Amino acid sequence: MNDFTFASPTRFVFGRGVCDRAGAELAAAGHARALVVYGQGSVVRTGTLGRVLASLDAAGVAYDQFGGARPNPSVAHVREGVAAARACGADVILAVGGGSTIDTAKAISLGVPYEGDVWDLFSKKAAPVTEGKPAVASVLTIPAAGSEASDSCVISNDELCLKRGLSCEANRPELALMDPELTFTLPAYQTAAGVTDMCAHVMERYFSSVGPVSVTDNIACGLIRSLMEEAPRALADPEDYDARANIMWAGMLAHNGIAGVGRNVRPDARAGGWESHGLEHELSAHDARIAHGAGLAVIFPAWMRYVWREHPDRFLSFGRDVFGIEPVDAERDGVDVTAEEAVADAVAATIDELQAFFVSLGMPRTLGELGVTAEMIPALLETLEQNKGAEFGEFRRLTMDDARAIYESAL
Ligand code: NZQ
Ligand code: ZN
């Protein structure tokens, strides 16, 4: 187990009806004025926004509203939010929504104390300023991105066709209100994309170059097994509270860092090389209609098939712990295969099972199903290189030729 630093400072308030406590929780934390950020209207239609605003009124927390965060949120919208937060003097940015809304809130919070253009922070031209930075809190309505406790914030710049993440401890929200009942209204596709994203957050950390870390690996595989049990239940009955609750908590555990401790190569680094996220972010940067989780459902298995030979043991332990897959033994099982063939078969079966799970949830198998064609690949590679450099990744270093091969294999 490698040395690590881990902090998860967010206060979690979990259960039925907790969104009605938003005002009391913020007031108790000393906040007097909130900018309430939301998305494209689901929280208006479901009544969640009204409940949150009523709780702010009841607790004497003043607020302004700032709606319109789109899935794969844009920096242009964030810039407007920064102006709105400054104008109302918000001491907390309260997101009511999912990853896109929470990331918009995080970026607004980062932008408030920074004098230049907020995109500078995402292009690493400047470091985040914490003095004068409003706190971030959320009422989570879709479990998926894990932004309610994560250290990252992902924003798109449409003019530059770039989607960039900024990870820093200052991004960790102060408060997350997690009411599984709010997720009953989620469309099946969003439920499935969310579960896929959670699996990806666990797997990006599991498939690092570091050898076994028993306690962390068991947390990781346990999370995937729970998601495989609970996701079909939530899809079969969208109002299955326990299924929704388990998925919601799993989404947080998948991305607050606990599923990767000790698997990091440097004490201050996150575990894993996040190769599939890097490859996927280009898809949703070029077409914001592509849900992040749906892109991952295609990219992750394609990446796995390309790189598994680098550390086959990671795949064998994942296959054993998640799917009960063991390589055949020529002598024991009386079959005519070499040890190498047995490993390759077990790994292929593991990746097939994982992909079959994503597809069973309604996720795509190919890039074609997402509208991505071979002609688009050069443009994806161009922005990938701008974001990641000529080589990236940790499980195995990937060049742009490797990235091209992975995209092509997924068409
Ligand atoms: O915009 P509204 O109208 O609210 O509708 C949303 C949106 O269309 C809808 N929705 C949310 N809650 C609902 C609901 N519909 C019905 N009932 C509800 N209760 O669901 C759609 C998707 O919402 P979005 O916030 O985009 O989903 P998600 O949470 O998957 O967030 C995706 C974004 O997070 C980024 C992704 O790249 C993407 O931009 N990520 C952020 C991370 C982080 N900050 O740590 C890590 C992730 O790896 C990821 O990259
Ligand atoms: Zn993700």
Overview of this structure, please?
With 411 residues, the protein is α/β, with parallel strands linked by helices. 48% of the residues lie in helices and 11% in strands. It is built from 16 helices and 10 strands. The chain has a 6-stranded parallel sheet with strand order 1-8-5-4-2-3, sandwiched between helices. The longest helix has 23 residues, at 214-236. The radius of gyration is 21 Å and the shape is globular. The relative contact order is 0.11. The site of zinc ion (ZN) has 6 residues, from α7. Residues 9-180 form the Alcohol dehydrogenase iron-type/glycerol dehydrogenase GldA domain. It holds the Pfam family ADH_Fe_C. InterPro entries: ADH_Fe/GldA, ADH_Fe_C, BDH-like. It comes from Thermophilibacter gallinarum.
